């Protein structure tokens, strides 16, 4: 039989692996390093776009004067002209980190306020992360001749989309949506950040809806079970200035 | 084969092995973190912490897939055996990288909240009754727990303390960890944060690992189901023509109700010993006679052929078996002798021709 | 013992080799693909009139 045929046998504690294996081992090592680089490049370069959401640090500390609505979740009602917009604007607000503004906004609800902080922006959407020198306080000089308009009722709808937390979606995190982000979104909602519904197709040009329960109150903690899934929801839609509010029965939620 | 325990025994092979592993990890993380972003089509980059978490997480998956391929591929092609030699270091490195992944995630998605970040992993999503939406983080935690236990018990101290069989059973936990990680990825990253490439890689990795293991399992099954003729006393088994045993190598015989036996040939001498290495139950019959001793293909443990005992100062012992030669055929006594029993090798003049 | 170990090893592998791809396959199949009902659907008269006024 084959006494002369090479019969390489690797022994770990030997000084060197058998000569006939050198080429093979070198090839395997190179292939592994190459494959690692290739896979890393493939995955890293093909990640989906997390969108144009961001903290507008460049704009610096911003102050706004308007009214505050505490329900369903704290939001500012700003007159036309404020923040460079030609029409009145309803803007969500949050505290720093995963904290809502209920404590400060509650006692001031319906009153003129000054609010200061850093803006989060996603396209036309924005949110104010309230903090710093001004924070949220009764207005020192209220805007004259301005009271927020009544909400406009747009009827009952069934909409399809995903529940997110308003802050991460607006720019606090990229990506700020999807199941991988669900724990973060739930932490935000638990902390008082408004839950929002982002629809797959727009209603009257809007895909961004602030969520509330049927009575316009904050949602119960049951909402956490539905966050980050593609679902359909039914409820009344109302519009405050340019902000859509979707007053839903969570019982109507269906996973798609 | 240490007679006393030191934290890690280093040799040239292990150093080389670790250098290559670090090169693989370095190439992966370096390209992912610093090169790939230049080629992304994103409006704004993914958050730095999340991006690094993805880099480490996918690297862990890549390494784990590789680790799980080593066993079966070394069975199917012996040239891959050097990859198996220091696999434990690879496992420990993988476990460390997994902790980085967790740290980046907890420091971002689970941070900035009044709820403690470690507590939040367990309490913030309780949709245990859902498939999509299941708290996939828990699956990752379980896998990490397994990886940690395996990394901690990877040292030879634990191997001797638990005995090889129990240790191997414990370390089969890596399969469960891999399944958990696949589910963790499938219900997490693949649902939203992944591009098509990642989805393809995960699918291909799982297919590769599964196929290699099924192929290796079929091979083992064939060996286990081989039928050998017994004599009338049912103590001697026909082990075939001695010419079938290659010089310095072995022929593996599967005993019906018991273990596998390796019949080794050293020149004209034939000896039968247990196929199971005392260190990690490696397949001695796939080893070779080096410096007059049978050498295990996994970690190079050595045994003398005639008494199944490691040369001093080592003390490992394995069972030996009696052989006899009758009418040009080799017969194996199926009763294992106590480990370390001396058996005179059978000499077959037929083998003298150097065949 | 060795034989049982190998058997257990194979049994574990056969189980996981079937279970894991099934989980992965299911998870990928259930991913929202965009083929689901997507248009906003009006559910009362107010909503219908809003829809008509905006068409």
Walk me through the structure.
- The complex is a heterotrimer of chains A (256), B (355) and C (55).
- Chain A is α+β, with helices and mostly antiparallel strands.
- Chain A folds into 2 domains: 54-138, OB fold (Dihydrolipoamide Acetyltransferase, E2P) (Beta Barrel); 152-255, Beta Barrel (OB fold (Dihydrolipoamide Acetyltransferase, E2P)).
- Chain A has helices at 19-45, 102-108, 166-172, 182-190, and strands at 54-55, 62-69, 75-78, 89-94, 112-122, 125-130, 136-138, 152-165, 195-203, 206-213, 230-240, 243-248, 254-255.
- Chain A has a 5-stranded mixed beta barrel with strand order 2-3-4-6-5.
- In chain A, strand 9 and strand 10 (206-213) form a beta hairpin.
- The radius of gyration of chain A is 27 Å and the shape is elongated.
- In chain A, 46% of the residues are buried.
- The model of chain A has no long low-confidence stretch (mean pLDDT 92).
- Chain B is elongated.
- Chain B contains 10 helices and 11 strands.
- Chain B is of the alpha+beta class.
- The relative contact order of chain B is 0.09.
- Helices cover 45% and strands 13% of the residues of chain B.
- In chain B, helix 1 (12-35) packs antiparallel against helix 2 (48-76) and helix 2 (48-76) packs antiparallel against helix 4.
- In chain B, the strands form 3 sheets. In chain B, strands 2, 3, 4, 8 and 11 form a 5-stranded antiparallel β-sheet that branches. In chain B, strands 1-10-9 form a 3-stranded antiparallel β-sheet, with no helix packed on it.
- Chain B folds into 2 domains: 12-223; 236-353, Rieske Iron-sulfur Protein (3-layer Sandwich).
- Chain C is mainly alpha-helical.
- Chain C contains 2 helices and 1 strand.
- The longest helix of chain C has 28 residues, at 2-29.
- The termini of chain C are far apart.
- At the A-B interface, helix 1 and helix 4 of A face helix 1, helix 2, helix 3 and helix 10 of B.
- Strand 8 of chain A pairs antiparallel with strand 1 of chain C.
Could you provide a short overview of the structure?
The complex is a heterotrimer of chains A (256), B (355) and C (55). Chain A is an alpha+beta fold.
